[in-house]
């Protein structure tokens, strides 16, 4: 079985440009992605958008990374993590990304790695700010923030179903554009 990148939907291709330029780009992409448009135009719009959006490219690499760990969990029953935690990690990322998209912001795609004992971790680091999100196979999600300069720390334990507090979103906003 060959791993192939998933193809995004038209709604996932909203441009990051602002003002009239953003509106024009968005309208052009929508025209190109209209259901009646030939496939070559759809591919052109998608490829041009992805080249101009490094965050989208990084998200695709995250998706492929998670798919590779998912395949590992399926094939190796002795792996220290499960398919469930990998799937939950993707859903947590999508939920966080959507929180920021609703505010017309783009959250940086985090660094990611599987942990031991059925957990997965995302980290963001920017100058004095450090933020991590640890996802457990049990469904728990732990957030931790530390300001390296002031030593201020913050933490929250939640689940995807319970959602993310405004404090967590505020801390993550330090890693958005």
Task: Give a nutshell description of this structure.
The chain is α+β, with helices and mostly antiparallel strands and 177 residues long.
Could you walk me through the main structural features you see in this protein, from its secondary elements to its overall organization?
With 177 residues, the protein is of the alpha+beta class. It folds into two domains: 10-52, no CATH class; 54-175, no CATH class. The chain has five helices and five strands. It has helices spanning 19-32, 39-51, 54-75, 83-101, 166-172; strands at 111-114, 119-126, 129-136, 140-147, 153-159. It has a five-stranded antiparallel β-sheet with strand order 1-2-3-4-5. Strand 1 and strand 2 (119-126) form a beta hairpin. Helix 3 runs antiparallel to helix 4 (83-101). The radius of gyration is 18 Å and the shape is globular. Mean pLDDT is 80; it is low at 1-17 and 41-51.
């Amino acid at each position: 079985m060959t791993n192939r990148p998933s193809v995004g939907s038209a709604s996932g291709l909203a441009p990051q440009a602002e003002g009239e330029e953003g509106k024009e780009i968005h309208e052009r992409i929508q025209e190109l992605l209209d259901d009646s448009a030939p496939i070559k135009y759809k591919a052109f719009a998608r490829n041009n958008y992805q080249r101009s959006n490094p965050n989208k490219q990084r998200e695709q690499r995250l998706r492929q990374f998670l798919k590779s760990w998912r395949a590992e969990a399926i094939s190796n029953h002795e792996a220290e993590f499960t398919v469930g935690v990998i799937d939950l990690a993707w859903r947590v990322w999508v939920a966080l990304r959507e929180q920021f998209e609703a505010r017309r912001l783009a959250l940086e795609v985090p660094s990611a790695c599987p942990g031991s004992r059925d957990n997965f971790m995302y980290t963001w680091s920017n100058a004095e700010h450090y933020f991590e999100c640890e996802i457990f196979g049990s469904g728990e999600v732990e957030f931790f923030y530390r300001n390296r300069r002031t030593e201020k720390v913050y933490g929250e334990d939640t689940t995807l179903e319970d959602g993310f507090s405004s404090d967590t979103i505020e801390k993550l906003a330090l890693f958005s554009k």
